[in-house]
Amino acid sequence: MKLYGYWRSSSAWRVRIALALKALPHETKPVHLLRGEQRTEEYRELNPLSQVPVLELEEDGKLFRLTQSMAIIEYLEERFPERPLLPAAPADRARAPTRRDRQLRDSTVAKLVAAAGARAIELRRRRLP
Ligand SMILES: N[C@@H](CCC(=O)N[C@@H](CS)C(=O)NCC(=O)O)C(=O)O
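Above: the input record for the complex with glutathione. Below: its predicted structure, written as tokens.
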């Protein structure tokens, strides 16, 4: 299993954390986002969206790649159920994503993104005749 990521990428972190919690051996392939390595033709072959993370792995002898951190984590959870990331009880499982979403919504990063969005809208409005 091979994880294409960048050390400062929060999306790649998520997958790294899931791989670590599940103790899944993998190789790390650094993609230097600040140097634009995600935009090379070679990398676009892996992910046309020019983003990390990309997880490359084999299933039934076939090599394939997954993108989108949450989809990757859900795949890992289903394919490797040992060391589960979610609680076993359905009620606890149902609460886990709610807690995660709330944490994301309240996080400083989310607030910064919302503030930047509001500022962009305000600037665009001011430029309108
Ligand atoms: N929804 C995607 C988001 C992936 C994403 O935004 N990755 C960022 C790093 S956190 C990236 O690769 N950005 C490339 C760039 O800035 O050019 C996921 O969860 O995997």
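Notes for the reader.
The two ends are 54 Å apart (CA to CA).
Residues 87-129 form one domain.
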